[in-house]
Design brief:
CATH architecture of the largest domain: Orthogonal Bundle
Distance between the termini: 175 Å
Shape: elongated
Strand content: 5-15%
Radius of gyration: 36 Å
Strand order of the largest sheet: 1-2-3-5-4
Helix content: 40-55%
Number of domains: 3
Number of strands: 10
Oligomer: single chain
CATH superfamily of the largest domain: Transferase(Phosphotransferase) domain 1
Length: about 425
């Protein structure tokens, strides 16, 4: 009887339970739209009936549901998800990575929505300065609520990893467009820049300066909305302690950085963002950055010293008004830039409507008056110098006249001497 029971139990084996890795992998494959729920379910059923120790990944490839390359990417994403150990979120795929962080597409399980998670690398998680800056980014973004700014959701630490959860934007960056060779029309560029200008106006009103406005940090949604991302260098303008700690250091991206950031000035304000937005607009409508050089140092030197070639001189289809606006936005002396983000927006919107930019015209007039005043101040010195020059010239003429008379007398005396000798 015992033998029969043993045989009976062996004839009706219990189906193997899928491992947690298989379960997570199946969810990821579906979330990434590589397979349907039914296709994954069929492979799990095959796994349950199989006497071989096949994993779900093996069966998905064998049944032709996914390719080996696709399942390889899913496995790497799953490994990254497990290593980050962020409770409440399921990693779907990696969106990008750099020296400072890796960004993942993920699902927030509690609200069943897609988000983006920026994770600080393990080696930087041990650096107090990087961790502090990381949390400041999250806090800065959390204080801003604007349709043209990527919204912050959560920030925290889990398993030794520091993470920042934010709104997921389905789309691409302006940097992606420029790298593909796209040059924006004036109307297209102004539409984007006005949106980001409004985002900056909101940030500036709340006391924050972004300090790293550039094409790579501007996301474009599928319906044409522009969103400012990456508050990694954002700083409260009232944060004197942080400003003094960063004094003498150039924070920003060389192609778009303002002169005062290059010099490492302490009181960086909203005008640095206006300069960078102007450089971004320049790049969009010309297809090239305002200043180029073989090294970052060479590029930054040009921001400090080299005159800007107006964008409408490079792309002659652009209006003179747009050129004027960019020149004011990118004035090397920040006191000659727009006095507020609102003034800048007024001009951008005017040019977009086919009208001249009123604030830029005022600025050009003020600069002209300033130059005239400088000329008037220099006039007395120039007049004195001119008078001295006239006196010197008059004295030289008198000397030459004197020399001429002396020479004539000398010639006459020599002729008289010759006549007397002949007479003898």
């Amino acid at each position: 009887m015992a033998q029969e029971n043993a045989q009976g139990s062996s004839e009706a084996p219990t189906a193997p339970i899928p491992s947690s890795m298989d379960t997570e992998l199946g969810k990821l494959v579906v979330d990434q739209r590589l397979a349907t729920d039914d296709e994954v379910g069929k492979c799990l059923a095959l796994q349950a009936r199989s006497s071989n120790a096949l994993t779900l990944a093996d069966l998905l490839v064998r049944e032709g549901v996914v390719t080996e390359n696709q399942i390889g990417r899913v496995k790497r994403t799953l490994a990254a998800s497990r290593s980050s150990q962020i409770p409440g979120y399921q990693i779907i795929s990696k969106l990008g990575s750099g020296a400072m962080a890796t960004v993942f597409k993920a699902k927030q399980l509690s609200l069943d929505r897609i988000v983006a998670i920026k994770v600080l690398p393990k080696k930087l998680s041990e650096n107090a300065d990087y961790v502090d800056r990381f949390y400041k980014e999250g806090k800065a973004a959390a204080k801003l609520n604007h349709p043209n700014i990527v919204q912050a959701i959560d920030v925290g630490e889990a398993g030794g990893y520091h993470y920042f959860v934010m709104e997921y934007v389905e789309g691409h960056t302006l940097g992606d467009d420029l790298e593909s060779g796209k040059v924006y029309s004036e109307a297209e560029a102004l539409d984007v820049i006005v949106q980001i200008g409004r985002a900056l106006e909101h940030a500036h009103e709340h006391g924050f300066v972004h300090r790293d406005v550039k094409p790579k940090n501007i996301m474009m949604t599928r319906d044409g909305a522009a969103k400012l991302a990456d508050m990694g260098l954002a700083r409260a303008m009232a944060d004197v302690e942080a400003a003094e700690a960063e004094a003498g250091k150039a924070y920003g991206t060389p192609y778009y950085i303002s002169p005062e950031q290059i010099r490492g000035e302490v009181n960086i304000d909203f005008r640095a963002d206006i300069y960078a937005l102007g450089a971004t607009l320049y790049h969009l409508v010309t297809g090239r950055v305002p200043f180029e050089g073989p090294t970052p140092a060479a590029v930054m030197h040009k921001h400090l010293k080299e005159p800007l070639v107006p964008p409408d001189h490079i792309n002659t289809s652009l209006s003179a008004g747009l050129g004027e606006v960019v020149e004011v936005m990118m004035a090397k002396d920040r006191n000659r830039r727009y006095g507020s983000t609102k003034d800048m927006l007024m001009d951008l919107e005017a040019v977009a409507a086919g009208q001249p930019p009123p604030m830029a015209r005022k600025q050009f007039d003020a600069n002209l008056l300033s130059r005239l005043a400088d000329v008037e101040a220099e006039a007395p010195a120039a007049e004195a110098q001119s008078s001295a020059g006239h006196d010197a010239a008059r004295n030289l003429n008198l000397l030459l006249v004197g020399l001429g008379v002396g020479l004539a007398v000398s010639v006459l005396l020599n002729l008289l001497l010759v006549v007397l000798l002949v007479a003898k």
